[in-house]
Amino acid sequence: MTGSAEPERVALVTGAARGIGAAVVDRLVARGHVVYAVDLGGDGTAATHELASDAYPLATQEDLEGLTGRHGPAVVPLAADVRNLQAISGVVDRIRGERGRLDVVVAGAAVIAGGNAQWETDDALLDAVWRADAVSVWNTAKATVPMLLEQPAEQRPVFVAIGSVAGLHGLYHLSAYVMAKHAVIGLVRALAADVAGSPVTVCCVCPGSTDTAMLTETARLYDLPHTEDLVAEQAIGRSLTPDEVAAVVELACFAGPAVHGAVLPASGGFRL
């Protein structure tokens, strides 16, 4: 055999340990990527994140390392707090040193919290949600987009943020989360304008109610016994699976310039 094999494409996914993030990792690996899978790690309790609780445990180091169990060396699991710019910048430095290229970034790290009207929402909760759901995306973009801009056009580099239908609608007793997710959409649109004329595509995918720990926590915040009570506004009549949402993220990763600056609902017909 002559010639050299085409270099492996490289992706970075945050919020990768479970739910939609893990499903995105699965799909990118299937498309031939080496994926640097980033999540907070730890034991998923309040010891690692102030919004974690016994009722709402976050992803663990075991969840993160389970990706390697599924995919072997195609996944590099990394514990990093994307609320910290230095932490995510360190991940990018590692990718540069080990791979020398970065093709796909999916910024999916997020949490949910709420349960009260806006004027009753605790300032500490607001700060925690803002940092976890908006600042995390800002930091991920700030750390990765310069490297994406270095890539040649034929690599079709792309930055995809995971938003929410909460960025498109108002939701009862979730004002901090709604504000943060609206901010993600604003950031994507501004970033798309900033990189105009470059090979980089920037877009946002906004899931509806999806069968994840976040949906279970939303039901708890609303004092609902079942998550099924939350999907009445989705035309499909059920929650989405993480893989169904990940299929739209995959589309966004490979659609190219046509989706630049776009906000793509993956909502199951939420509030048609």
Summary of the model, kept short:
The chain has helices spanning 19-30, 61-71, 85-98, 123-150, 175-194, 213-221, 242-254, and strands at residues 9-14, 33-39, 75-79, 104-107, 158-162, 201-207, 263-266.
Question: Helix and strand layout, with pairings?
Answer:
Elements: E1 9-14, H1 19-30, E2 33-39, H2 61-71, E3 75-79, H3 85-98, E4 104-107, H4 123-150, E5 158-162, H5 175-194, E6 201-207, H6 213-221, H7 242-254, E7 263-266
Parallel strand pairs: 1-2, 1-4, 2-3, 4-5, 5-6, 6-7
Helix pairs in contact: 1-7, 3-4, 4-5
What does this structure look like?
There is one protein chain. This protein has 272 residues and is of the alpha/beta class. It has a single domain, classed as NAD(P)-binding Rossmann-like Domain (Rossmann fold, 3-Layer(aba) Sandwich), CATH 3.40.50. The chain is 39% helix and 14% strand. The protein has seven helices and seven strands; from the N terminus they run βαβαβαβαβαβααβ. It has a seven-stranded parallel β-sheet with strand order 3-2-1-4-5-6-7, with helices on both faces. Helix 5 links the parallel strand 5 and strand 6 (201-207). The longest helix is centred in the middle third of the chain and has 28 residues, at 123-150. It is globular, with a radius of gyration of 18 Å. The mean pLDDT is 94.
Percent helix range: 25-40%
Q: Return the CATH topology.
A: Rossmann fold
**Topology as H/E string?**
EHEHEHEHEHEHHE
- Strand proportion, as a percent range, falls in 5-15%
Structural class: alpha/beta
Number of strands: 7
Q: How much is the average pLDDT?
A: 94
Specify the CATH class.
Answer: Alpha Beta
Major sheet summary line: 7 strands, parallel
Rounded to the nearest angstrom, the distance between the terminal CA atoms is 55 Å
Low-pLDDT runs of 5+ residues are none
Strand order of the largest sheet: 3-2-1-4-5-6-7
**CATH superfamily placement:** NAD(P)-binding Rossmann-like Domain
Given the C-alpha coordinates, what overall shape results?
Answer: globular
What's the helix count?
A: 7
